[in-house]
Structures are given as structure tokens and as C-alpha cells.
Methyl-accepting chemotaxis protein
Amino acid sequence: MSIFSFSIKLRITLLAGICMLGVAAILIGFSIYRIDAISTLSNESSSLTIKEGALQYMTKLGEQQAQVVSQRFVTSRVFGDTVMHQVIFLREQAKRLSSDSKTLRSDLFKLMQLQVAANRDVLGLGVGFEPNALDGDDARFTNQKTDGGNEKGRFASYASTLVPSYTMSEKEMADDGAPGTFWYTCAFKTKQDCVSNPYAFTNAQGITTLMSTVSVPLMSGDSVLGVLCVDLSLASLQELVESSSGALYGGNAQVSFISADGVIAARSGEPQAAGKPLVSVDPELGKQISASTKGDTPEVLERDGNVVVIMPFSPIPGAQHWSIVIQVPEVVLLASARQLKESLDKANKDAAGIQLMVGILAALSGLVLIWMLARSITQPILRVAAMFQDIASGEGDLTRRVDYERHDEIGNLTSWFNRFLDKLQPIIAQVKSSVDDTRRTADQAADIATQTNSGMQQQLLEVDQVATASQEMSVTSQEVARNAALAAQAVRNVDLATQEGVQTIDRTTDCITQLATEMHQAMQQVEALANNSEQIGSVLEVIRSVAEQTNLLALNAAIEAARAGESGRGFAVVADEVRHLAKRTQESVGQIQHVIEHLQSGTRSVVQSMQNSRSQADGSVAQVKRAVGALQKINQGIEIISEMNIQIASAAEEQSVVSEEVNRNLSSIRDVTNVLVRQSKDSASISQALNLLANHQQQLMGGFRT
């Protein structure tokens, strides 16, 4: 079934409804697509921002932990340097005073014991001289362990809180590449302070302690006389990594201290791994760290779903780099970003549902309005059609007229139709009058037919002329009929053009209405985004101000704690933590600022939507142009109707001329009939036939009411 077989009202409603539903579907689909794209961009940006902030936080935490560990090693190194200078001083003093070697060695051992007892952070202190480098009397003290002499008499004494007295053997200081001699050979060869890898030491009571050794060369000018070593416990490092791990991301992070040779000094969650090579616990990470410790800059790795931050640091200046390794599962690191994504997805889903419902309601409302508009357009047409039907079924009553008071296209059509009836009515009236005259003349001819026998031939000739004139009048009437048909066709064309103009104007109205709605929504979005940006900006200023004031207060508190000395140490730690929190607050403000920038990006998207609305406005202008074209077609139809009416008027004039000719011929017949009364008998039959024809013509003309 073709759509053109439907009624005008149904066609207008159907086509306009399809256009409205299509536009609504496109707008809703585009809106959902843009919302999803903005959500994806926001999620990616927030994930990247959170990840960068977390990496910065982990790096800063690594730096803080490195400072704590370095402070312990530096303290031990300073302690070693102090003792080293005291040892060199005692040696030089004994040499200057020519003191006894036994007294010198006894004084050195007492010095070592006193220093170990005075420093609780030091587990042991050892001094080993090169052969005859102390007093040149090593042979005298061979195997004299009470005086610090080993199997070759070298002074190699060790004082410790775990072992009262101990003399180091030649094997412990030999240059054989063994790990146990690193403390001596490194400082002796490099003439610099050295730090050994972590190692486990078990005392006589069976207690195992994780230790590291700081070696200091005993220098006399450019010559190395021996090496002083300071042993310190690394047990507190395990407590440090455990507390750091517990405070980082809810205990889901792992913190490790790795020595320069890849030995684990401490590892949160795995205390049994301390003292083991990292490659035996995590081979892949061990290889990556061995490459990372060659530089001074932190490195970030991503592997197996974990984010690894490697922070190289030197335990003491000039020593090989150790590393602090912080591992955090990426899913934990991006937990807040995931929550944000879930919230955005839910909000987008709700917004899409609301938009769909609003679109459906708007489309249904538009269909109802379009149906009402189409009904208001077609009702006048139906009313005029009913009037035409009434006139057509009224047995040719030419006195009736179409009554339509509106001055629109339909009113113009009815006006011209009424004018056509105004011209047709007097013509039919004249024809009826002529028929009456003809009938009366025929009656008169029948009365005198018997007396007009000789004049009947002339009468027949006149009757032939009357027949010819009647034929011409018939042809003219046919011309009038054809012109009337053309006029009717022109009226139908005008009707179609009018319908097209109405449809075009209706579509233009829909486009302009949709454009106004979209621009209104876009303006609301811009105003809402602007207000939110201003509110967030003011809140950020307050947060930034509070963070700065907190940082200043924490700094002042730290200064006051430093002035208070030992009694203010705890308060200094709290002040440092407060300053750290203030710094995190400032970083968070920066992150929020980044989110605001994405909101501004959303504002640009709204501007793009307004540009789309402008394009729809351009489309509406095109629709209006089409409506103008349709109205031009209507004007052309009206011109055709006017031309047809002119032709009808011309045909009517010709009919009038013919009627006059008929009248003249009948007058001649009437004159001849007066002369040839006596010949009427011969023409009686003809007169009767003429009378019958006149009666029949009168019956035909009687069907028209004038």
C-alpha cells in the first residue's frame, strides 16, 4: 500500500513523527556517546593522575626511609672516623714518647672497649693494622691475644658487646676475595670508607643477628696503616619496613632494603628473607635492581600487576648504592580511580535512561501536537468538500454558494469557485429563456401550419439554420466544459501544492523547535559547569590556604622541637608527619585542579553541541525556502484558474452570439409563417416535431435552478 493512499492528516502525522523520532534518536545516541567518551577520558585521566601522585608519594617515602637508614650508617661512620683519629693519635703519641708497645696495645684495646660501651647502636669495633704498621714490634706479640696479637703478631683486636675480647686471624684480613674479608680489603685498596653486605652473626648463646660493617681506613699521610671496622645491627630495619608497609595503602605494599650486591637487608612480610640474595627470592626483580642501582635516579617498573619503585641511595658518602624497593599492587594503587569509574558509569547509565524517557515523551508529545495541527489543516478541506458534495447532489441548483469565511488557500479556492458559478448562472438562465421562446414559437407555427404550406420550405431552410446555430452552440458548450475540467485540474494542483507547502512549513517548525530546545539545554550545561568550576575553585583556595598554614605550623613546631633537644624528639616526629600530611593535601589540591581542567573540557563539548544546533538552524532555513517554493506553485495554480475563467467567459460570449442568431432566424420563420398561413397543413408534422424538440429542451434546462 502506497503512502499516498493515506489521508493528508495521516501522512502529515506519519512523516513528521518519523522525522521527529529520527532526530530524537540521533540526539539521544550522540549524547550517550559523548557521555561515554567523557567518562572514559575522565577515568583515564584520573587513573593517570592518581598513579602519578602515588608514585611521587612512594618516591618521597623511599627518600625518607633512605635518609633514616643513611643516618644510621653515617652515624656509625662518624663514630668510626672519631675512633680512627684517636687510634692514630695514640700511635703517634706512643711513637713520640717512645712508649712501650705493650702499653700502646693495651691502651688501644681499652679505647675500643670504652667506645663500644658508650655507643649502644654499635655492636662491635675492630682494628686491624698492617704487619709492623703499629709499633714495628709484631714479632714480640705473636699469638699474644691478650695484647691483640694474632698468629703473626699483628694488632687485630675486636671489642664487642656480644664477645668480650676477640683477636682476628690473618684469614679474616687476607686478600683472597672471600666475602668475610671484604671489610678489610675494600677500605685498604680504595682508601675510602666501605659498607659490607648484610650478613648473619650467631654468638655463643646461639642468637643470630643481622649485621653490616662500616670500614674506615687508618691513614697516615697517603699510606694505609690498617682498617677500622664498626659493626652495627640491622634488626631495626625489619621493624622500619614493617611499619612503613603497614602505613602504606592499608598494609598492601611491600618495602625492602637491598644492598649494593643484591642482598636483602630487610623485607616486609618476609623477615626470613633477610640476609639472602634477592635473586634467590625474586630472580626477575633481582636482575632489574642490579641494573637500576648503577644510577642515582629513582626508577619505576610495572610487572605482574605490581608497580615497583626502586630508590637508590648511598649508606655513606662514596659507598656503593643500596636500594629501597616499594612494591604496590596496581589494583590497590588505582582503587580510588576504579571507584570513580564505577560511580561515573552508574551516573552515565542513569542519565542515559532519563534522556531516553525524556526523548520518548517529547516524541509522543510532538506526535500529538502534529496530529492536532494536521487535523486543524484538514478539517477546513473536509468542510469545503462537504459543501461541494451538497451542491453536486442538489439537482443543479446554481443559486447556492460555498460559505467559507477564512482568508487562507482554501478560502481562495472557494472564492474562485463561487465566481465561476456567478458567471455560469446567468448563462444558463439565458439558455432557459431562449428555450421558452423557441417552444412558444413552435406552438405558433403549429397553429398556422395549415395556412403556411407554401412557406414551409422556407421555414425548413430557417430550421436548418437554427440547427446549425444550435450545433455551434453545442460546440461552444463543449469548449466551456473542457475549460471547466481544466479549471478543476488546476484547482487540484493548487490543492497538492498547498499540502506540500503545509508539510514543508510543519517540518521547518519542528526543526526550529528542536533547535531551541537543544540550545536551551546547552546553555544550562554551560551555566552549571561554570558555577561548579567557580565553587570548586573557591574550595580549593581554602584547602590550599589551610595546607600552607598547616605546613608553616608544622615547620615552626619542628624548629621548636629541635630547640628542645632530646625532650622534643617525639614532638618533632609528629610535626614532621603533620607537614607531610599538609604536603599531601597540597598535592591533592593539584589533582583536583586537574579534574577541573577536564570539566572545562566538558564545557568545550557543550560548545560543540551548540554548534550542532546552529547547523540544525541552517537546515531549518532550507526547509523554509522549500516552503516558499511550494507557495509559488500555489500562485501558479491560481494563475491557471484565472486563465481558465477567461476562456470560459469567451465561450459564454460566443454562446450569446449564437443565441442572437437563433433569435433572428426564428423571427424570419415567424414572418414567413404569417405569409404562408395557408400552407400550414403541409408543415403541420414538422411543427409538431419542432414542438416535441422544444419541450424536450425545456425539460433539460429545467434541471438547472437559476
Summary: The two ends are 45 Å apart (CA to CA). Residues 456-564 form the longest helix (109 residues). The mean pLDDT is 76.
